Amino acid sequence: MAELARCSALAGVLEPGLHGRPDFRGPGIVLAERHPMSLVEIAAASDEVSGAMCEEVAGILGIRPPAEPGTATGTGRPRILWTGPWRWLVVEPESRDLAGMLEPAAGASRDLSHARTVLRLGGRDVRRLFMKGAPLDWHPSVFVPGCCAQTAMFHQSVLVDCRQPEVFDLFVARGYARDLLERVIDAGAEYGVQVS
Amino acid sequence: MIRITCPYCGPRDHQEFAYVGDATLTRPSDDAGADAWYDFVYLRDNPRGPHLEYWQHVHGCRAFVKVLRDTLTHEVLATGTAADDLVAGGR
Amino acid sequence: MLKLQKPSQPFRLEEGGEIDRLAPLAFRFDNRRCIGYRGDTLASALLANGVRLVGRSFKYHRPRGIYTDGSDEPNALVELRTGDRREPNTRATTIELFAGLEARSQNRWPNLQTDIMQVTSLFAPIIPAGFYYKTFMGMPGWRFYEHFIRRAAGLGRPTADPDPDRYDRMHAFCDVLVVGAGPAGLAAALAAGRAGARVMLLEESDAPGGRLRADRERLDGAPAREWVTRTVDELDAMPDVTVLTRTTGFGHYDGTVISALERVADHKPVPDPFEVRQRVWHIRARRVVLATGASERPLVFAGNDRPGVMLAGAARSYVNRFAVRPGSRAAVFANNDDGYRTAIDLARAGIEVRTVIDCRAGGQGAGREQAAALGIECLDATAVTATHGHLGLTGIETAQLSADGRGIIGQPRLHSVDLLAVAGGWSPNIQLHGHIGAAPVYDAELAGFVAGSGPGASRSAGAVNGAWSLGECLRQGSDAGGEAARLLGFNPGAPELPVTEEAPVGPIRPMWRLPGRGKKFVDLQDDVTVDDIELAHREGYQSVEHLKRYTTLGMGTDQGRTSSVNGLAIMAEERGIAVAEAGITRSRPPVVPVALGAIAAGDVGMHFAPTRRTPMHDWHEANGAVFDHAGHWLRPQYYLRPGEDAGDMNRAIAREVIGTRSAVGMVDVSTLGKIDIQGRDAAEFLNRVYINGWSTLPVGRARYGLMQREDGIVFDDGTTSRVGEHRYFMTTTTANAGMVMAHLEEYLGVHWRDLDVTLASVTEQWGTLALAGPRSRDVLARVVDGLDVSDEGLPYMGVRDASIAGVAVRLFRISFSGELAYEVAAPADHAARVWEVLVDAGAGHGLIPYGTEAMGIMRIEKGHVAGGELDGRTTAVDLGLGRMVSRRKFHIGHAMAGRDGLTAASRPGFVGLVPVDSVSRPRAGSILVADPQARPPVDKLGHVSSSAWLSPSLPHPIALGFVKGGRERIGSTVWAMFPMRNEAIEVRVVDPVFLDPDGERLHG
What we know:
heterotrimer; A: 196 residues; alpha+beta; Gyrase A, domain 2; 5-stranded antiparallel sheet; 4 helices; C: FAD/NAD(P)-binding domain; elongated
């Protein structure tokens, strides 16, 4: 199959530049889309199958899916996020046939690469921005790198992955991506949002 | 506002959950007969006090959470997974 | 400039206070230009300018002035700002002065001094509580009177323009939340903060301090303000302590959640660019300390509402904090020692204090001697029995009280004063306690209600807890903050409390109403008098909740903070019961008025609900689509061509139907729910959730499925394809996608945990389109690689993988329109490209995009059921789909579907309907009856479930519906009635498949 450029849900919508209040310290929030991404969900229906599946996945990727709910493993190529009991999302920038690699004999895998839009958000005010959107404790001593959480942000289901103390990946259903982007830029206007 | 502790995700606002229903009921076998099905589909107790119910963590891990909730005070007394047995005096 | 201002603020003190005399601010009240200072409220600036009359009362239009210094103000409500920011009923006592402020008095015409509606006051004896409703309601023409009655008894005018400001919502978490930053709150926050807890401290006004800003207290041998400054500095230096000023806790909810309103920019002329005006905080705290203080109560005596009558604590606040003299010659009327403290402070500010009138016969504390030493006359066992003055107080009458306090002895004496400070005791602000169900408990020693124990992790400290002395407030605050921290595992250490200098005080003498002739106001905002309460008693509205609703006592913006206790105590006296027995009304959020804009925050306009867009959205937008909302989705309803407008809707829809039926049309169906089902038990799972069987479906085939609820009613339909040995691809309707997913998850998560099946929504992974019409195969053949799309290569209900323009797609030979049709699923990021490739390929074949209207018409023409038919009341048999039910297996709804009521022959069956006149359009929702002339109750034969007002393929409108007897009635006529529009249309019952009943078009 010929390599085709993927068209992001935010194509033509993401306007680079500063949105909102300028600040001599620089923008309070920086935002960029991570695209194209490979996203594969792996899931099992029981403890036994899940254990076998994780074993297999660890063998394929060299990284074991995290056992602890609300946590992630891996440094990014790939990163594996806990998304539910016996369920994980394997994530990396698109560079190989991740979905093709991940077809464990135990459990199920599904390509969700096109189903989510991924925003990378950073900056000194990004935790305050999250406070506006979602009723989760975003305190830097609580939501630390290695944590991920699913919640409702601005009324939409999202998955948030803390990569560094002030850097987060935000996963949202593709169809809602534009709406969420508008909400983020609107809510972040008082801090200044630099879109790149 | 009710704060519900998802056994996987921890304490969350009830807005992240969808109320599912009475967790004291067991789905009858397929051939259980009309009375058993009638009970399961239509009859509900409305206790004043502790009540065992299912909530789905729809904006989170999507798990079905058993919640023992006091209908009088709204206090959440205990939570667990669908497989957990929470009934401690409540029903 | 400064020189000119001096005479303009004749009541400003030369020194003292927390105002900044170097920052003068010009403002307007009605048409008067005034000057105040930074640090003023509108109320203090008005008093400094000698403005005492600020409004007219709600019902009687009586002149009213400034009564308090805070958010409990019942009187001084003004219309603030102009244009699209005009806001009525704002309290002058909480509005921080800013340059250019414009405020207007309310509820007067033509102006504040000459308000013609004041004549209502003359009729006051005949307009008691409930007068308007008793007199006018039920009379012919109530609607006519109502307009004038509501106009006469109204408050300010809001703007009718859209709000230009931004509002915001913030979710916060902390260990210890302290509400109120007076001495108790500060001490609590300090104790918890020093222990290392994450603390939030909320203060309603512009700075912490509470009564320490208003009273001349000393701590550690220095003015108490110095301790406040030190404490705030220490709190500010703690990284995990957040002090929010201009923030009022307005609601207390289960789960130890407090909601608070932060007035971020209300103290500015307009918010800074991008700044929010107000922010609502929802704070989830592990422990809460409520240090909300107390509100002073008025004494209830004749003429107690005249401008110039003011609460004693407010008078002290004006002289001490704002450096304003609220009058020139003052008297103080009290039932407790606050009277003397007030007299002393007023005298020190240069006000001529003539008299302290004390209801008590003795037992006063040290204050009485100090006041007397300043030359102030102190009258014991005396009451104010009347007041004088038209637009402002000019004098009062006092008289000796009888021993029981109910009558007077001797002749009244006249005092010439323009300020009467009234100290009736304090009511703890227990509203936040009440929200979570803590019952108020009457404390006779305090003559007030404190909060009893309630659920949740909160406790009170300070005046709200009945602590009247500063030392006790500090101690309680420190204890509460320390205990909260300790309970959370922190170590608060030993408390360090500042040393207080307090004189002993005597007990309060509760005096709920005083003798004298004239109107005695209990609730100044709602114009509720003692007479009204007596009337309520006589008419049987005696419980506090009835009293409130009958008289409107406590229903204003102040939520009865100055009036509730007096009102219910008077009722208790009438009933001859103890105040404790009468109880107090239950408080509910919000404690203070909260703008709806602040609650809505960013959820407005297009963001009222989230908007969901398909991958092909931009193409639709660029090609004339008119969008319709389907849940959160935006779907093309129809496409307008250049030069067309909304008036061309029917033409556009007809064009799309005809284009599809005659050549080929394409519709975006990405919104259908798509669920990936995997696992060894996947086929068994489908057997259980659908009424039909799945065991025999081979890989590469799709099947139509119908789901029931457990009660045997049809829930949803769609096609499911087998795409692998243990893998299926389910589609659901757009409307039910979320519900079906949750339904399936529930069965796997709760009832059938042993099944080896996993599910995932893949709705967003795929952009899907349907290509329909006699030329659809020709178009597809031009672009599809790797697949023969002939009837052999891709048979009806076949499913194949292929590629289009390099994109791996999945093709389904399924049809909703009844035409030869395909659905193409492409990964979402490529779906728009696939759509465009098909548009290009179809150009020579007459391809036309169509929207949901054309789609709906074509499915009605084919008699396919959809939302109108799957309405939660119909069974598979009702829908004419009874043959689908598999008898060889159990499935959801199996047990209940066989009940008599669901299988009765009398149930309306699915049919088509055609107007006999071939022109009329029976509306969806019309009721089917046999006789259009019949008088109710009419026997209902059924209803119209879907209607196509135009059916380009047929020469008449068509509809689907359910009618008793079902297909047996085919050929007969019934009447479709729509009484709300007076429509009666005779319709012929026909087969629900209007077009191509043999399915010849479907198979090309």
